[in-house]
Amino acid sequence: MVLYLSYIYIGIGMRKVALFAVLAIFLMSCSETKRVTYLQKVESLPVEVLQQKSLLADPRIVPGDLLSISVGSDSPESVSIFNKLSSSSGTTENAMTSSSVSDNSTYLVDNKGIIDFPIIGKLNVGGMTRTEAEEFIKSKIYPQYVKKEPTVTIRVENFKIAVLGEVKAPSIYNVPNERVSVLEAVAMAGDLQLTGRRDNVLLIRFKGDGSKEVARINLNDPNLLFSPYFYLQQNDILYVEPNKSKARTAYTVPPMLTLSLSILSTLLGITNIIVTLTR
């Protein structure tokens, strides 16, 4: 009789455990939904907050950049010596009147931030913003070499970012228009895996002076829209860490623990069968 009551007690305890397990799974699923949603409750932000402009930083020139530099003027022939010519260009006149710059008309920024510019020679543009470099080159050309103030246009031809970790397509991505937000970068990488942490994305940024900056980004936070890290800069690296569930699956269970759990599961199964048969 005592043994029978013990079996019943064990059976009731197992049912309670199962009930608690189901409840825990339900609560965990609700919690996971909150963790995977981007910009949570962004619609609740006040209108005046949403109307604020996000900070879009002008790209800073760093070693390794490939710069396309075009010098224009009302008198194209006067600035022709400052423009590299493509071997595929039809004529010098056509090349000078075109506002576009060929792919091979680029200047490599060396490790000291220096480029070798026609006629003028070595120019240190490392650490400057694109706008600052345009004004700097213009000041070297006008009025020393030309009578009319020219226009100088610089583009970073190899503007790229890297997205690594728990994303569907980790890779290095080129950004032709030199403008990309962190959400656009996530989309380019095929979105985050469910096993990726959205609240603690690591950003590594390489500055023009060679130093580095590290920041953490919370993709769940609606205030991300106004963060100085919302727009990425060239050579930025995003790393998405695995969440706890992914970390647990990566853990190798020792053989002895596996055997112990197997024995325990078998004993619980036998106990449940005995309780059922003795009813």
From TrEMBL:
One Pfam family of this chain: SLBB
Coiled coil: none
Protein name per Swiss-Prot or TrEMBL: Polysaccharide export outer membrane protein
One example GO MF annotation: polysaccharide transmembrane transporter activity
Domain Polysaccharide export protein N-terminal: 58-156
Highest taxon listed in the record's lineage: Bacteria
InterPro entries per UniProt: Poly_export, Poly_export_N, Soluble_ligand-bd
Keywords annotated in UniProt: Membrane, Signal, Transmembrane, Transmembrane helix
Domain Soluble ligand binding as annotated: residue spans: 161-212
Record field: transmembrane: 256-277
